[in-house]
Design brief:
448 residues; mainly alpha; Ammonium transporter fold; two-stranded antiparallel sheet
């Protein structure tokens, strides 16, 4: 029996129906974030790539779920081996887990913990897809997800959250995924786009979002689902830490949205809906690792810093020439780095742990730990992801052809289009009010 499982002994915690129900709801909220991301990304691309963008997120729901059940949960949260990876035969196929067995030290079943973490594993590779819009073969993307979660996500999740994982044991604070999710995905996105190159027409053709209402819908659903993502990561409601995280999630997101909009107004002269949506997501990303360690005032500071710096970072792709289609690097990588490092400044020592940041008398110790976590995950994900993309590109090819990219990846890869305008303006009702057509005269003169 794996050490992470505990039976219902007399001195062990008892199953809590309230915490179990709460965590099942949180799991459903996190699941919602993947379709929400699909809408968010889908609205940001051109019409001809909408369905492909949706499918790049949705396919993760299928692939990662099966891999997680077969071996992913065991690799991420099984018995530690060398502080690098886990493995427990009881977790393979989720076949050796009893219905009443609890996650070690908590009052929720192992099954509930497993499904909650599954939703994180699904969302993370979906985040990468936004950087690759318009140009990646769907079969190559599906293979990349399969390899990436196996080689990158499952081990990194163990480093950060698994009992015995080296970053976990070092004391790196990552409440809900600043390193394991956002830095991991953002660095992977950079690694892949350095291999596959730019879109046809990058920096020449307009590539504006085709549906800002879809973007706003996706952002709103992400904000809603993120409460489960963040507050649920404490795995219960017994001590108020999850409640603090819930409040900090709202506060930081609001501050980041306002900061992004203020930057836009000063820099470009307008408050845009895309800026509001992007700013909100930047705040959600930044508070994810830090919200369980800071006060609401600290959350405002973290959100404002993230909103401002992420807004500035999205323009770096034009300066350095990498084609991050939907700003995954500017928002998720930069936001994840900021949120992770700012723990070392704003941690109060009075919420999830007694670790204090520099501004609360803790010195530079926690900041140093956070920096190690950031650099380790960023470097590993960047290098491993680039290697995986290169292997796929050299074997089956990662990109569609230039002609297919120009004509539209939706039709080429999915034999569909997002919108059917064939019936627009037609129909009997419109014809009935039209002026009568002139009589047809074949080879005859019509008198004036």
């Amino acid at each position: 029996m794996a050490p992470a499982i505990t039976t219902l002994a007399a001195d062990a915690p008892e199953l809590s129906a309230a915490n179990t129900g709460f965590m099942l709801i949180c799991s459903a909220l996190v699941m919602l974030m993947t379709p929400a991301l699909a809408f968010f990304y889908g609205g940001m691309v051109r019409v001809k790539s909408t369905l492909n963008m949706l499918m790049m997120s949705f396919i993760s729901l299928g692939i990662v779920t099966i891999l997680w059940v077969l071996f992913g949960f065991s690799l991420a949260f099984g018995t530690d081996s060398g502080s690098i990876i886990g493995w427990s035969s009881d977790y393979v196929g989720l076949s050796g887990i009893g219905v009443t067995e609890l996650w070690d030290g908590y009052t929720i079943p192992v099954y509930v913990f497993a499904v909650f973490q599954l939703m994180f594993a699904i969302l993370t590779p979906a985040l990468i897809s936004g950087a690759l819009a318009d140009r990646v073969k769907f079969t190559a993307w599906a293979l990349f997800i399969t390899l990436w979660v196996t080689v990158v996500y499952f081990p990194v999740a163990h480093w950060v959250w698994g009992a015995g994982g080296w970053l976990f044991e070092m004391g790196v604070i990552d409440f809900a995924g600043g390193t394991a999710v956002h830095i991991n995905a953002g660095a992977a996105a950079l690694g892949v786009i350095l291999v596959i190159g730019k879109r046809v027409g990058f920096k020449k053709d307009p590539m504006r979002p085709h549906s800002l209402p879809l973007v706003m819908l996706g952002a709103g659903l992400l904000w809603f689902g993120w409460f489960g993502f963040n507050a649920g990561s404490w795995l219960g409601n017994d001590d108020g830490v999850g409640a603090v995280m819930f409040v900090n999630t709202q506060v930081a997101t609001a501050a980041a949205m306002l900061a992004w909009l203020a930057y836009e107004k000063i820099r470009h002269g307008s408050f845009t809906t895309l800026g509001a949506a992007s700013g909100a997501v930047a705040g959600l990303v930044a508070i994810t690792p830090s919200g369980g360690a800071v006060s609401p005032l600290g959350a405002i500071a973290i959100g404002a810093i993230a909103g401002l710096l992420c807004a500035m970072a999205v323009g770096l792709k034009y300066k350095f020439g990498y084609d991050d289609s939907l700003d995954v690097i500017g928002v998720h990588l930069v936001g994840g780095v900021l949120g992770s490092l700012l723990v070392g400044l704003f941690a109060t020592g009075g919420v999830q742990s007694d670790a204090k940041g520099l501004f609360y008398g803790g010195g530079l110790e926690q900041l140093g730990k956070q920096a190690v976590g950031v650099v380790a995950v960023l470097a590993y994900s960047l290098i491993a992801s680039a290697i995986l993309a290169l292997l796929i590109d050299k074997t089956m090819g990662m990109r569609v052809s230039e002609d297919d990219e120009v004509s539209g990846i939706d039709q080429v890869e999915h034999a569909e289009t997002a919108y059917d305008f064939s019936g627009a303006g037609g129909g009997a009702s419109s014809r009935s009010t039209a002026a009568p057509a002139p009589a047809v005269t074949e080879n005859k003169k019509v008198d004036a």
